[in-house]
Amino acid sequence: MTVLNTEARLGMTTGQMPRVNLLPPEIAETALFRKVQLGLGGAVLGAVVVVGLLAASAAHGVSTAQTKLDGETAKNSSLSKDVASYSNVTAVYNAAAAAQLQLTNAMGQEVRYSQLMHDLSLSVPSSVWLKTLTFNQTPPAATAGAAAAPGIGTVAFTGVGFSHDDLALWLEAMANLKTYSDPYFASSTESLLGTKKIVTFSGTMNETGNALSGRYSKLGG
Fold first, then answer.
1. Does 16 reside within a domain?
2. Domains in the chain: how many in total?
3. Where in the sequence is the domain holding 103, given as residue range(s)?
């Protein structure tokens, strides 16, 4: 006995059968609304996560910058203390410079006459001997407009030679020394020393700046 199902009897296949939705439309709308809610909730959650990550990154950047700022502030504070600890150095240097200036003003015109006399003794001709030497050192001009002196002072001398040629040798020897300039005689007199003729002479010469010791003339030296 052959049994045919209803679809076969009606002459239709399964794919040709009409579909009928028996669910109320409210249920379908509710399901669709829940899907939309879930999608929006996921989007909101993703946005919250992104915002949180950005906030954490920003907070980390702010913290790092604050740490660097605190470090630089502490360093500046330390440097400020160091600067304060050396604040008296300028005053010390100024005081030293003022003392050096006073020393230069007081001793800048120093002449070491012991050395000067030693050099002079080596330059006196053997046929001449000196009787007197008088040094007269001139104080420096008080004002810039004052007339400049030919040297730092003058030297008056008297001596004895065997002839006027010996006097000429003496004047030439003094002219060759850097510490003197313009030597000349004021007078000369011939006389006898026993049976020996001698010439007694006198004169002056200028004492030049080369006679200065220079030990106190340089600031900071």
1. no
2. 2
3. 28-108
Cβ distance 213 to 189 under 8 Å?
A: no
pLDDT digits (tens, 9 = 90+) for 42-82: 766 777 676 777 767 767 777 787 888 777 887 877 777 77
Place of tokens 């076969």: 8
Task: Indicate the residue type of 109.
Answer: Q
42 and 97 in a single domain? The answer is: yes
Task: Verify that 88 and 133 share a domain, yes or no.
Answer: no
Q: Does 122 map to a domain?
A: yes
- Residue pLDDT, tens place only, 129-141: 999 999 999 887 6
50 half-sphere exposure, CB direction, 13 A CA radius: 6
User: Is 219 part of any domain?
Assistant: no
Which of these, 107, 121, 209, 124, lies nearest to 173 by C-alpha position? 124
- Are 158 and 182 contacting, i.e. CB atoms less than 8 angstroms apart? no
The SS3 of residue 160 is strand
Give the CATH number of the domain where residue 120 resides. 3.30.70.2830
The confidence score (pLDDT) of residue 156 equals: 96
Instruction: Find how far residue 55's CA is from the centre of its chain.
Output: 49
Of the candidates 174, 155, 154, 168, the residue with the CA atom closest to the CA atom of residue 199:
168
